[in-house]
Design goal:
Layout: H1 20-26, H2 32-36, E1 42-45, E2 60-72, E3 79-86, E4 89-94, H3 101-104, E5 110-120, E6 123-133, E7 145-148, H4 157-171, H5 181-187, H6 192-200, H7 205-242, H8 251-258, H9 288-296, H10 303-316, E8 325-330, H11 336-349, E9 353-357, H12 361-375, E10 382-385, H13 391-403, E11 408-411, E12 425-430, H14 440-445, E13 452-457, H15 463-467, E14 474-478, E15 489-494, H16 498-510, E16 514-518, H17 536-547, E17 553-556, H18 562-573, E18 579-582, E19 595-601, H19 608-615, E20 626-631, H20 637-648, H21 652-663, H22 688-704, H23 714-722
Parallel strand pairs: 4-6, 8-13, 8-14, 9-11, 9-12, 10-11, 12-13, 15-20, 16-18, 16-19, 17-18, 19-20
Antiparallel strand pairs: 1-7, 2-3, 2-5, 3-4, 5-6
Helix pairs in contact: 6-7, 7-22, 9-11, 10-11, 19-21
């Protein structure tokens, strides 16, 4: 029996009456499977007594008496505080969000207490503790390791322990292993039935660790089986059409071979020999439309752009049954848009439509304008679609799209709203991919019959995502910049010497340049404790009135309506505005070559990646560009060393690495998306090494035994068939 095939209702468990069913449902427990898979959030090791006095070294585990109670805070923040003592000392318990403790913890009562404590305001405190009547701890009375479950009102630890224990007695013995036997043997993992039993009631700490290892690996293995199936399905189509195996460079290949947190290393070419010898010759296997665009360009493609487009053409040339899934990575300013346009031309040449999605309306509009400039002369119909298009115009536009009269549509996520239909969507380009949630991928793909997908990003994909949600994608990298780009000269400046920065900018403006001034807040009302933070709105006034009275100063931020944003950007582009005061709305994509000064005030309040993106807005023309990072006079040494990273580096990938080192892997942009994976016990960030191994195993099995017919693999086929751990691929 597979654990997910146990469709036994909860009421079959002794002690669970119909009144408890909705309470259990609140914890996500809907049947016996859910109960057995309701893994503890922690374990209470009662095999060792630890009195309160020893709280610094270990988790406390002791018998206490309630000596007093108190209430702290007001209104909704009102919280019960309970003082307890054992023979070694006193401690206080903060009962946040556990209203039921009020009735339970009465003065004079005796309890069993377990938890982590810290020293605060002269007290030994905890808000992360387990407490229960002595004698009522559910199954087991001896000194043992007990599960600590996530709870909800009306359920106690003791109740859940009893229910789980009963379910284990009743059903655990019949559980089948879901991992191939060879893997279980190789890694010395537990059989499924033992793992499930031990994750709830382990006999020892060692057994608990092994149970965790087993269940985590099993979960990640099936995650990678799902990812791998999708990748191989695409590759197999190529194979059967071309009669050969194409050497796919998956994103995860990079990670596995360079063991880095990001997909970029110093010399990846040595790992992956350039697949196309045509690279060195100017001859590209282009379609007629593509050739016409390239001929019209005032510059030639960079080698990186060329390589990327060659790879894309190879993908798109494989016929209607294969769809490309490719990530295009290239630093800010490396020219990804042009590659996207060339890809779009290929789709149109094949009789299809292309959609280009950008994260903001501003950026989408800029792409649409560029597309109109470059592609309309080739006879293409370009359309622009966002959520702000008025009803009448929108209706017409949708009709043209559905009729196939629009070749390329550029827009925001509105491109994939319910009422939008395409005649023949062949290519979807997602710009600044990291700005979108991962779940949108399936939504997008549903708009066409297997359209090609090109995702573009200047921000490296964290390794966790590369192995999971993007784990089936191929990758192209643009490593070079268009020629003639001078590196932006970056300076750090204290807030108290900002006048010198202003003087410098004034001289540049007099010489005909334009400048961005960026602030962390829109206006002073944004937040309470920010009275001494400069904001864009008041600074726009001050810069206009006092600092640059002879120049035209304008303000742009996300609260303006799209029409205002558009006119302002347009006037800035035309040079009618010399100083653009902004928030991070200019962070992505904006391209105005004559604007070559960037001043970022309160720079310490921005993430390094955001600073890199902002700095990437300048240095796009022939003139030397400047970026000033103005920081608060009280900046800590840590803060300064963060900003120094910006002085010393121009490469976005290095900056992202540094950012990661300084912030720790828990906060990598995009990894919060791994929540979409719906995992039960594994955490792809914490368990990254396990994830990589699970991937190797899963891909090896799928590649060597695609039909899953070998004895040892039949269980995988059965799990996928009968009770897949993920109801569908969720990304
Ligand atoms: P990103 O990769 O950041 O999206 P863009 O596509 O916005 O970069 O390109 C940045 C600028 O470089 C644009 O102004 C574009 O016209 C220009 N550009 C693109 N490719 C080349 C090239 N091969 N040579 C010179 N300039 C180029
Ligand atoms: Mg771009």
């Amino acid at each position: 029996m597979l654990i997910r095939s146990l469709s036994v209702p909860l009421t079959a468990i002794r002690g669970i009456g119909s009144a408890l069913v909705p309470k259990l449902a609140r914890l996500g427990i809907r049947n016996t499977t859910g109960l057995l898979c309701h893994y503890p959030r922690d374990w209470e090791d009662r095999s060792v007594q630890v009195p309160i006095r020893e709280f610094r070294h270990r988790q406390v585990c002791t018998n206490v008496t309630v000596v007093a109670r108190d209430w702290i805070g007001y209104g909704r923040m009102r919280t019960l505080k309970v003082y307890v003592e054992d023979e070694s000392g006193k401690a206080s318990l903060l009962c946040f969000n556990r209203p039921w403790l009020e009735k339970q913890l009465v003065a004079g009562g005796h309890f069993r207490l377990w938890g982590r404590f810290y020293y605060k305001y002269g007290e030994i405190q905890s808000s992360n503790f387990v407490i229960e009547e002595t004698g009522d701890r559910g199954p087991g009375t001896g000194d043992q390791i007990l599960p600590v479950y996530p709870l909800t009102a009306g359920l106690t630890q003791a109740m859940l322990r009893r229910f789980v224990n009963f379910a284990l007695e009743q059903y655990a013995a019949n559980l089948d292993d879901e991992l191939p036997g060879k893997i279980i043997a190789r890694d010395g993992l537990l059989p499924k039935k033992a793992a499930i039993r031990a994750i709830h009631f382990p006999a020892s700490v060692a057994e608990l660790e092994l149970a965790k290892k087993t269940l985590i690996f099993e979960e990640l293995f099936y995650l990678e089986i799902m990812v791998g199936k999708r990748a191989l399905e695409r590759k197999r189509k190529v194979r059967s059409e071309k009669g050969e195996v194409r050497r796919g460079r998956s994103l995860a290949d990079y990670h596995q071979s360079i063991d880095s947190n990001h997909i970029f290393d110093d010399n990846p070419q040595s790992l992956f020999p350039t697949p196309h010898s045509s690279l060195l010759t100017p001859h590209l296997p282009c379609s007629p439309l593509q050739n016409r665009l390239i001929e019209r360009l005032p510059f030639s493609l960079t080698p990186g752009q060329t390589e990327a487009i060659v790879e894309i053409i190879a993908d798109m040339a494989t016929g209607p049954s294969f769809s490309m899934a490719r990530l295009l990575q290239g630093d800010v300013g490396s020219g990804k848009t042009l590659v996207a346009f060339l890809a779009a031309l290929r789709a149109v040449n094949d009789g299809g439509q292309a959609a280009l999605m950008a994260p903001t309306e501003l950026l989408a509009r800029q792409h649409a304008e560029n597309a109109a400039l470059l592609l309309e002369p080739l006879g293409l119909q370009i359309a622009f679609l966002t959520g702000n298009i008025k009803a009448a115009g929108r209706k017409d536009l949708l009709r043209h799209l559905a009729a196939g009269e629009v070749d390329i549509v550029v827009g925001t996520h509105a491109l994939f709203s319910k009422d939008v239909t395409y005649k023949n969507l062949r290519l979807v380009v997602v710009d600044e991919q990291h700005r979108f949630g991962v779940t949108q991928r399936s939504l997008i793909m549903a708009k066409g019959a297997n359209p090609h997908l090109l995702m573009m990003s200047a921000t490296p994909i964290p390794r966790t995502l590369a192995l999971t949600v993007f784990g089936d994608m191929d990758v192209s990298v643009i490593r070079d910049m268009p020629p003639g780009r001078k590196p932006v000269k970056t300076h750090l400046a204290k807030e108290s010497s900002e006048d010198r920065v202003y003087d410098f900018i004034r001289k540049k403006l007099e010489a005909g340049s334009q400048a961005y001034f960026v602030y962390p807040l829109i206006d002073g009302g944004d937040s309470g404790d920010t009275s001494n933070i400069k904001d864009a709105a008041s600074m726009a006034e001050r810069l206009a009135a006092e600092v640059f009275p002879r120049f035209s100063v304008a303000l742009i931020h996300s609260k303006l309506n799209e029409e205002e944003k558009r006119t302002t950007m347009e006037r800035f582009r035309r040079g009618e505005i010399q100083v653009l005061v902004a928030t991070s709305v200019v962070e992505v994509g904006v391209d105005v070559p004559n604007a070559n000064c960037m001043v970022i005030e309160h720079a310490e309040r921005f993430g390094l990646s955001a600073l890199h993106q902002l700095r990437g807005r300048v240095g796009r023309g022939q003139e030397q560009a400047f970026c000033f990072l103005v920081y608060s006079d009280e900046l800590t040494d840590d803060g300064k060393s963060r900003l120094k990273v910006m002085l010393e580096n121009t490469d976005g990938f290095v900056i992202a690495e540094e950012d990661l080192k300084l912030r720790g892997p828990g906060q990598i942009a995009g990894t919060e998306q791994s929540g979409y994976l719906n995992l039960g016990i594994a955490n792809p960030i914490r368990d990254i090494e396990e994830l990589a191994r699970a991937r190797t195993d899963a891909f090896f099995i799928l590649e060597n035994d695609p039909g899953l017919v070998l004895d040892d693999h039949r269980i995988v086929a059965r799990v996928l068939d009968e009770a897949p751990p993920f109801s569908e691929v969720v990304f």
